[in-house]
Amino acid sequence: MRILFCGLGGIGQRHLRNLRTLLGHSLEVHAYRVRGQRIKLQDNLTVEHGADLEADYGVIVHHDLDSALAKNPQAVFICNPNALHVPIALACAKAGVAVFMEKPLASDLEGIEELLALVEQKQLLFYVGYNFRFHPGLQRLKSLLDEGHFGNIIRVSAEIGEYLPNWHKYEDYRQMYAARADQGGGVILSQIHEMDLIYWLFGLPDNILCVGGQLSNLDIDVEDTATSLMQYRGEQGSFPIHLHQDFVQRPPVRTFKIIGDGGSAVMDLINTQLTVYTAEGEVAESSNFPDFVRNEMFLNQARHFLDCLQGNARPQVTLFDGLQSLRLALAARESLKRGAQVNLDEVRVNG
């Protein structure tokens, strides 16, 4: 199988390793490369000294996207900074190539309407990589929600805080996409997973009010702190949703909590611990998922994408789905800029 990679940083190399695991030597790796860094990363994001990324994986390098697409890859993995996603996705769609795009979909809505139209017109497979949908604890949380365990939901809250310089020890954090406005960085877009979880579990809220900004002494030109309050009205009821994101917390924290009059649950994603409570506050179930290995989320996501590519499954996260979490993130960013509440209907594209 011929796969083209656009971006071979940390997440691109993870996808490459996993595809090699699943496909073995039948995988033919092509890459459209601009910077051409050849450091090879291990699963824990440390550098494998003495190794060469391109030589070890047999990467066929292209310095021009059109020439890379002319090799007729079965799929393209877009893993470069999100500000560069849409132009590459448009070129892939025009060439009729299936796309796996890392989250978030983009850093704004420019070109999205054209992309939606092309994908629909050509009936292309387009998958957006939200790997936490494959987390066993979050899947159990969704099952509890579908089973009505929580009764009337009263509140949903999520928090993610992690120190930005600790993300990629192999590079200067100031050069990372997350730290740079010109590459679509900032805590709101970089930590968009929680917004996708909100959309996956409940759908989009009606509105959002976000406060925060660049509050720390990190040497970045984007917001490092964002606290959002959303009002949800939909099939699950009417309740507030609270989300906190930051680039500064040590030790890191990552939790997702649902409170209802029929019960509650807390998912601690750092310690991989799900605790479910009854309406009386007693522990109904508790699991730390002892067999869980973080990379399994990515492996299962890759298996799912390959199934979709072979026509054996429908994508769990479509281009339309990826657009919804992007709309929520852009609404939060606009609210932070305005210092006022933003309705989700204000952030949309036609098509």
Explain what you see.
This protein has 2 domains: 2-131 and 300-315, 3-Layer(aba) Sandwich (Rossmann fold), CATH 3.40.50; 132-290 and 325-346, Dihydrodipicolinate Reductase, domain 2 (2-Layer Sandwich). The protein starts with a strand and ends in an 8-residue tail after the last strand. It has helices spanning 10-23, 53-57, 65-69, 85-94, 112-122, 136-146, 187-190, 193-202, 294-309, 319-338; strands at 2-6, 28-32, 60-62, 75-78, 98-102, 126-129, 153-161, 207-213, 225-234, 237-246, 253-260, 263-268, 273-278, 283-287, 342-343. It is of the alpha/beta class and 351 residues long.
Features:
351 residues, alpha/beta, Rossmann fold, Dihydrodipicolinate Reductase, domain 2, 2 domains, nine-stranded mixed beta sheet, six-stranded parallel beta sheet, 10 helices, globular
Task: Give the SSE map.
Blueprint: E1 2-6, H1 10-23, E2 28-32, H2 53-57, E3 60-62, H3 65-69, E4 75-78, H4 85-94, E5 98-102, H5 112-122, E6 126-129, H6 136-146, E7 153-161, H7 187-190, H8 193-202, E8 207-213, E9 225-234, E10 237-246, E11 253-260, E12 263-268, E13 273-278, E14 283-287, H9 294-309, H10 319-338, E15 342-343
Helix pairs in contact: 1-9, 4-5, 8-10
Summarize the structure.
By secondary structure, the protein is α/β, with parallel strands linked by helices. The chain is 30% helix and 25% strand.
**Helices and strands, in N-to-C order?**
EHEHEHEHEHEHEHHEEEEEEEHHE
Shape: globular
The gyration radius over C-alpha positions equals 20 Å
Mean pLDDT level? 96
Which band does the percent of strand residues land in?
25-35%
Sheet with most strands: 9 strands, mixed
How helix-rich are the residues, as a percent range?
A: 25-40%
For this structure, what is the CATH homologous superfamily of the largest domain? Dihydrodipicolinate Reductase, domain 2
